[in-house]
Design brief:
By secondary structure, this protein is mainly alpha-helical. The protein has helices spanning about 1-15, 25-35, 50-95, 120-130, 160-165, 180-185, 200-210, 215-220, 225-230, 240, 250, 265-275, 285-295, 300-305, 320-330, 335-355, 355-375, 415-425, 430-440, 455-460, and strands at about 110, 170, 190-195, 280.
Length: about 475
Amino acid sequence: MATAQVGKRAERRAEPLAPALLTAPQVFWLLRRMLCLSNRLPSASSKGSQAGCMSCVLRHIKCLIIFSLCLGVIFLSGLFHMKNKNDVISKSHEELLIPSTPCRAKTNVMFLKTHKTASSTVLNIMFRFAERYNLTVALPAGQLVHLGYPKTFLASFVEEFQVIGQNYNIMCNHLRFNPSEVQKVMAANTFYFSILRNPIPLLESSYVYYKDSVPAFRISKDVNEYLASPMKYYHPEDYKQNIYARNIMWFDFGYDNNAEDNKKYIQAVLKEIEQNFHLILIADYFDESMILLKHILCWDLDDVIYFKLNSRSQDTVQTLTLKSKERIKAWCSLDWKLYLHFNQSFWRRIEETIGFEKLEKEVNHLRMRQKELMETCLSDQEAVGKDHIKNKALLPFQSGATDILGYNLKQDLDNRTLRTCQKMVMPELQYTSYLYAVQHPHKKRKQLGLPLLWTSFQEKMQLPTPN
């Protein structure tokens, strides 16, 4: 529809320049008018026949000249019309290729990676973008896999910060947000964004994922029992161990997840987040979020194409009762109000930036492209359970009672396709370790403690051999 409208606009601009073509009846009418019909010419035997014949010859010559001129006009009109039509097609293509508002891709980007919000998929998108444009990523120092989390972020948590200084392009590993320290690492023109998720499914996901490591979760039977009386299991003095059990998004943004639900305090925090971040996405509308991100960052569609990472098997999902869902709104009230506020601003931003009709078309395009890549890359056409992942180098980190899904790639892919597909399915820890080896080849590789087939994996990825 957009293409047709662009074409029509171009044609309307061109119409005044093109003379109309003569129709067949008009041509025949002109010929009849120009031919000197015999019944209208004077007879040779009549008086003044010589003068009449001379007049007839002159009129024939005149008619032939006029006829030739008309044919020339018709011919030129056709050529002009065809040229003008080609111009319309050309303009239409140019208008489609050139964005309505010309922009330049943003390459200095900070993503606050929140927990259980599809943020591992976003991190993969960010890492691939960094590789595509040869950008420098602010990676965790030494053997860290997070940027100091759950400690409040410090610039010293970034590898070689003392050497590189404020020259990093991308930051996206887990950290607890601390704007003054982040600004020491990232350039002044950095674009800041994050992602939120509805706290109701988020808490259930967090409960299952961190079941074995969070004291408040560990001693309760299931998520509904925990929510029936959370203070029975949750002890604020153990907040460092229990951060995943209450208002985890609020904590990730750098605030006290045990703070009192005070209207004035909440409004102040929301205002501060709006000042620190240019965009907040919503995980519950992930495809729509990627399209919005693409527009605002002026990225290509393939820059935001993804395969879902760090997702879990549906048979590990615990069903929340209606009472439990309502209790989450109260127990995680800070997260709930954070989510409600930015869910509204997200849809306003969609309307202002893209419009809902265009959004729908672009989301469909994204899903078609995603399907194409899945058919190209994946042997199973979908994510598979941990026990069915053939290449253990692509096995995601497993936690709690979850079965974190992964992917199997097709065999006999050409090198370029294989490389692209591997990057799209590479789990977070492996990708972090890989980029660390590429950016800091003189440093010791991160020891992940995962059952990885690093030798064959490095050969396929064409990685440098670590010291």
